[in-house]
Amino acid sequence: MTESWATFGADLHLDLSAGRGLRAGLVEALREAARSGRLAAGTRLPSSRSLAGDLGIARNTVAEAYAELVAEGWLTARQGSGTRVAERARPRKAAAAGPVRRPARRGPSYSLVPGTPDLSGFPRAAWLAAARRALTDAPNDAFGYGADGRGRVELREALAEYLARVRGVYADPERIVLCAGFVHGLRLMAGVLRARRVREVAVEGYGLDVHRKVLAGAGLRTRPLGVDGAGARTESLPGLGSGSGSAGAVLLTPAHQFPTGAALTPARRAAAVDWARSTGGLILEDDYDGEFRYDRQQVGALQGLDPDRVVYLGTASKALAPGLRMGWMVVPPGLLDEVLEQKGRADWTSSAVDQLTLAEFIRSGAYDRHVRGMRQRYFRRREELVAAVGDRVVVSGIAAGLHAVLELPAGTEQALVQAAAWHDLALMGLTWYRHPESDMPVRDALVVGYGTPAESAWGLTLGALVSTLPMP
Q: Are 251 and 203 in contact (CB under 8 A)?
């Protein structure tokens, strides 16, 4: 008999080799599949009639093979449950070579690293309800390959209304491009800038190194802008570049500068727009923490000052969850074709089902309700943080967002970060975010995220560490 294969529910391939007879070959193939773990314990096998049809053999042959393996304990057969791989069937483990080692620790027990929201707050029930409604109403073409590189029109229309209402963004649905998060959008823009022969991009002197690496990966050099209590020093943009030239674009976090927490002042917003208009440069606006303000009226998006010179980039990562991989760009009219050229004319990046669900989530008002609820949760966390550190340090950057900056005495930042590690607490120092070419004075501080910490223990640990510092 020649070698034959059968594929069924668990995608198992049965090798019925010649020389052992049909029943013996089937028994050995199933036994080996269960013994090796290729067929997991608890897996339901096809009926004897179905498997016999797949293999082209008599049904009785399959039934007899099943019965023999049930008798041996490899399979179980119960009325109404079918034939399954027995729970006792486990894959063979290779003998240990050398001494048994303890597994390496996965990381600290508590993390105050900024940038991650409270994932336990994801609105599972409301999201599931939105998904049901979205799937019920979805057109058939939503399950295709995604012919429009901008993404589903339903989500672009919902975002246009939401961003105009909440963030003051001029957002025509035709100029919204959906992407898989902020970094993906930045990568697309880096490609556009490189194709335009831009060589240098201004960035804030404190910021995420992953963003600088994205720009560098496209062959763009980053030039640091100074940052102070009024945000990035955008008045320095003219002439910031090689020789007497200017950078071709600037990346800003106007709503809540990351990581210092400052909001870009009206005068510096105007300076950025004036620079873009006079030089033909582009402003890349990262609307970081734009939806989470606590102490005063919302700060609108910079894009509203000049939609023709500002590329607005937003994401659902903080408001919902980064695992959704959902972001959006609002691009100037003359830039749309270039962005789509970088992305591709089809939408390969985000699930159409998730796009439709988010559209329904926004339209139904569930997104607004969720953001309001999380804003209250983070506000309480912020108050706990301020109370935990007391008057030992100055806390800044707390008007918005999911992190705060704890100002430290000169020369104490690194020692405090190391001491926190000894206490099983992950902390980040402000120095880690500093641009390597920045000429700003070194500033000792901690950037403390309060999005994800355990409610009971983190405050005590951080408070104890801060109490070792000298009084200001």
A: yes
> How far is it, in rounded angstroms, from Cα 463 to Cα 406?
12
* DSSP category for residue 64: H
pLDDT digit string, tens, across residues 124-178: 999 999 999 999 999 999 999 888 999 999 999 999 999 999 999 999 999 999 9
Residue 437 phi, psi dihedral angles, 5° rounding? -100, 5
| Contact between 451 and 374 (Cβ < 8 Å) | no
Phi-psi region of 237 (alpha: psi -120 to 50; beta: other; left: phi over 0): alpha
Q: Which of 168, 146, 183 is nearest to 329 (CA)?
A: 183
pLDDT, the chain, mean: 86
Q: Which amino acid is at 134?
A: A
Interval 327-337: pLDDT, tens: 999 999 999 99
Identity of the amino acid at 187: R
User: Is the whole model's pTM more than 0.85, yes or no?
Assistant: no
DSSP 396: E
pLDDT in tens, 289-306: 888 888 766 788 999 999
State yes or no: pLDDT of 90 exceeds 60: no
Residue 74 near residue 85, CB atoms below 8 Å: yes
The DSSP annotation for 216-245 comes to HHTTPEEEEEPEETTEE-GGG-TT-SSTT-
Cα–Cα distance measured from residue 349 to residue 329, given in angstroms and rounded to the nearest whole number: 14
Tokens found for residue 198: 């831009």
Quickly state the pLDDT bin for 38 (edges 50, 70, 90): confident
Task: List CB contacts of 383: < 8 A, sequence separation 6 or more.
Answer: none
In whole angstroms, what separates CA 84 from the centre of its chain?
39
φ, ψ for residue 445, nearest 5 deg: -165, 165
Spatial contact of 194 and 174, defined as CB atoms under 8 Å apart: no
Is residue 284 scored above 80 in pLDDT? Answer: yes
283 Cβ partners below 8 Å, 6+ apart? 249, 250, 252, 272, 273, 276, 302, 306, 309, 310, 311
Q: Would strands 327-330 and 176-179 be described as parallel, antiparallel, or unpaired? A: antiparallel
Gap between the Cα atoms of 65 and 48, Å rounded: 9
Query: Residue 181: which region, alpha, beta or left (left: phi > 0; alpha: psi -120 to 50)?
Result: left
